[in-house]
Amino acid sequence: MITVLYYTANVVNEIFAKNVRRQLRDAAGGLPIVSVSQKPIDFGENICVGNIGRSHINIYRQVLIAAECARTPYVALCEDDILYTPEHFADYLPVEDSFSYNLNRWRIYTWSKYFSYTGRIVLSQMIAPRKLLIAALQERFAKYPDESTIPDLSYFCEPGRRERLLGVSLQKKVNYESSGPPNIVFTHPDSIGFDYMGEKKSHGPRKERRLPHWGTVEDVMKNFYINERKI
Hints:
Layout: E1 2-7, H1 14-28, E2 33-37, E3 45-48, H2 56-69, E4 74-79, E5 82-83, H3 86-90, E6 98-102, E7 105-109, E8 115-117, E9 126-129, H4 130-143, H5 163-166, E10 172-176, E11 183-187, H6 194-197, E12 206-208, E13 210-211, E14 215-216, H7 217-226
Parallel strand pairs: 1-2, 1-4, 2-3, 6-10, 7-11
Antiparallel strand pairs: 4-9, 5-11, 6-9, 7-8, 8-12, 13-14
Helix pairs in contact: 1-7, 2-4
């Protein structure tokens, strides 16, 4: 069994965020949901941590809180600006000593008419053994109780990457691609990092104007990003 761990700083436009949560609830198909937010939300078992601020490290803090609250053997990490498919939660579970990352995801740049594919692993596509995730994050926070002592924030990243640079236990990772339609990741003005990168963020090596199930970028923007869907 998998628990969906949804984490948010509540910065994303709430109409868009509600659309994402509806899609996530549908895709999860009855799986338990734990949400950790900085404002109260009605989504699964909600833990509100208050206005601690949006930051790279606070993402991992909220993930750890959610994982410690969950009760299932596995967890799936889900963010507030990503559309997930049922196949993402059903197709693959890693062995007990490994983190898995779904590479079947395409990105939308809200100022572009193209979907973009990079093939890079990201935290929001992780499915992992819950106890392994807790242990890995607890070790990191124990080693760096003061985040200003982290040699480079880019080292504090997805388990299975850069542990040697961070000075923590090495973790195994498995990359896979779920079947069916891809997950859709939005890059938009409320994205973390947009404040310093803006629209300079480059497309991946593959671009498409239309994807199966989702349609065109314009379709996705209209159905999820711009308008509130009717329940």
